[in-house]
Amino acid sequence: MNSPATSRRKLPYAIAFAVHELVLIRSWAERNGMLMKLRLDQVVDGEEFEELVLLCRRGSTQPVLSLWRKTNAVVVQRAGGAPRSHGGVQAALSQVGLRPPAEPALAIWRHLRAWGLAS
């Protein structure tokens, strides 16, 4: 007989990004010579992150930026810096000096929006 699943004691500290947000983050990372790495189901300082995005310079394993989503904000943290909350992915990335995505990524985003997968 299977034992019942253990219940989660609290909601995760950070939730997953929407697909269109991940497309934007990846595009911005590529334009700025960075690689995007996703970490799923991480526990950091005792807090559970469903999804954690790390942006690393090409050729380096050390993240330059970390991003995570809370229910009402996107949080970005520079390596060694303090976390800062923003209203969305574009606002968060614009505060760290990353440029908007290249036209191909905008086209993808427009298609996702047309299909109802992006807002």
Describe this structure in words.
Residues 1-5 have low confidence and may be disordered. The chain has a 5-stranded antiparallel beta sheet with strand order 1-2-3-4-5. The chain has 119 residues and is an alpha+beta fold. The chain has one domain (19-114). It is 26% helix and 33% strand. It has helices at residues 19-31, 89-94, 103-114; strands spanning 34-44, 47-57, 63-70, 73-78, 84-86.
- Total beta strand runs: 5
Looking at the structure, what is the overall shape?
A: globular
Largest sheet: 5 strands, antiparallel
Arrangement of strands in the largest sheet: 1-2-3-4-5
Domains (count): 1
Mean pLDDT across the residues is 78
* Integer-rounded radius of gyration: 16 Å
Which regions have little confidence, pLDDT < 50, spanning 5+ residues?
1-5
Seen as an oligomer or otherwise, the chain set is: single chain
Order of helices and strands: HEEEEEHH
- What is the tally of helical segments? 3
* Distance linking N and C termini: 44 Å
Determine the structural class based on helices, strands and strand pairing: alpha+beta
What portion of residues is helical?
25-40%
Binned strand content:
25-35%
